[in-house]
Design brief:
424 residues, Chloramphenicol Acetyltransferase, 2 domains, 13 strands, globular, disordered N terminus, O-acyltransferase_WSD1_N, acyltransferase, transferase, endoplasmic reticulum
């Protein structure tokens, strides 16, 4: 059986997007930091990884990129977990453990990784920070999976803290109510189709403009030449998820984009650069600006532009090859300013190899942007992770403060609107 499994894996080519993110210029890594509520046991992690992570074929295979007529593929190999687990000797009485974690993560991201082994590594840090008693910092090549797949992998390796024998569960999204009025349902569906067609035309036109010549407006985030932009500092901040939900439910808006809109505008103004329209005179004006931005984002969600983009990428590969796809992807990334992403985590306490998790933070390296904002959720916490270029944003904590402040301002505005509606 084992031999048959190796033959099958070896003959399966690398998926198109895994191959894309392993090409020169787009060599990307997912960075995951997990805080624990107790001291970490390296032996427990080594044993746990043997029984879980290695069951996934990609984590026990070497990525062969291929050359000439040889296509990229996954090559099975014998994995010694100890070669992938690093336990540095850290002074537990270190003066500033939070700063140490930031420096350690940033240095680890840009250290070379052995391509002759599966492209992942895990660092266990027995150091107490403001948010955890110990930490795990992992680096996974993007060809192994994206944020959603890695979160699913984490859940598969974890167990409920309340029930150590049970797997964590994800809460299913609530379905919208369906009206019983037939004629109104037909009108709604017709209107939905019209909006879908209109939004698709608009978003495809914008996408083609970006491919041809259009760039984002000039801001302090684009002050360096595009070829030299790269995040070289990673920080995170843990905030209340309930505060985020108050604003998100009121505005029905993606939380990463919502918070980035308010915070970067405030940060830009704080360094003397106007990043928001001049008609804004108060915080309520900024709040209204975010509402208008939501309309644009809603239009993009209700369109078939992603399907068009996927078809274009697939057609590019089939006709011109992967080098053309790489050029196309780098053109898109090179004409944008900020990378935004968010991944929903478990809504209940979980434990990883008998270590109760305190928080999960994630980011990505390898993109040509000066700012990457990634937000994850865990139980009642929202974790903001920033990847920044220090030459563009020399004080990322200052920007993070503005993110938190912008959230509180929007929360206060929502509460004031609710109070006004209730006549309080």
């Amino acid at each position: 059986m084992a031999i048959e499994k190796q033959v099958i894996v070896g003959e399966i080519p690398v998926s198109p997007f895994s191959r894309l993110f392993s090409m020169p210029g787009l060599d990307c890594f997912n960075i995951v930091t997990i805080g624990f509520k107790n001291e970490a046991s390296p032996s427990a992690f080594i044993e746990g990884l043997k029984n879980t992570l290695l069951n996934h074929p990609r984590f026990s295979c070497i990525l062969e990129t291929g050359s000439g007529e040889h296509k990229p593929r996954w090559i099975p190999t014998n994995v010694n977990v100890k070669d992938h687990v690093v336990v540095p000797n850290i002074d537990p009485t270190i003066e500033n453990p939070d700063q140490f974690l930031e420096d350690y993560t940033s240095n680890m991201v840009f250290s070379p990784i052995d391509v002759c082994k599966p492209l992942w590594e895990i660092h266990i840090l027995n150091i107490k920070t403001s948010d955890a008693e110990s930490l795990l910092v992992a680096r996974f090549h993007h060809s192994l999976g994206d944020g959603m797949s890695l979160m699913s992998l984490l859940l598969a390796c974890s167990r409920k803290t309340s029930d150590p024998g049970a797997l964590p569960t994800l809460v299913a999204q609530k379905k919208s109510k369906v009206t019983n009025v037939v004629w109104w349902s037909l009108v709604s569906r017709l209107w939905l189709i019209i909006k879908l067609m209109f939004n698709t035309v608009v978003e495809v036109f914008k996408f083609l403009l970006i491919l041809c010549s259009v760039r984002d407006n000039a801001t302090p985030l684009m002050e360096k030449p595009r070829a030299t932009l790269t995040p070289n500092k990673f920080i995170h901040r843990v905030i209340s998820l309930d505060d985020v939900k108050v604003v998100k439910n009121a505005m029905n808006m993606d939380l990463a984009k919502m918070m980035e809109k308010g915070s970067t505008s405030r940060w830009g103004n704080s360094i003397g650069y106007v990043m928001i329209p001049l008609w804004m005179k108060s915080e309520n004006d900024i709040f209204e600006y975010i509402r208008r931005s939501k309309t644009i984002m809603d239009r993009k969600k209700l369109s078939l532009e992603p399907l068009f983009s996927y078809t274009l990428f697939k057609l590019t590969v089939e006709v011109f090859g992967y080098k053309a796809l790489r050029t196309l992807a780098m053109r898109i990334f090179g004409r944008s300013t900020v990378v935004l992403s968010n991944v929903a985590g478990p809504t209940e306490e979980i434990s990883l190899f008998d270590h109760q998790i305190s928080y999960v933070a994630a980011s990505i390296s390898g993109f040509p942007q000066a700012l990457i904002v990634h937000i994850t959720s865990y139980v009642n916490k929202a974790i903001i992770n920033l990847g920044v270029d220090l030459d563009v944003i020399p004080d990322p904590h200052h920007l993070c403060d503005h993110i938190v402040e912008a959230l509180q301002i929007m929360k206060s505005a929502v509460e004031e609107e609710i109070s006004a509606d209730l006549g309080v």
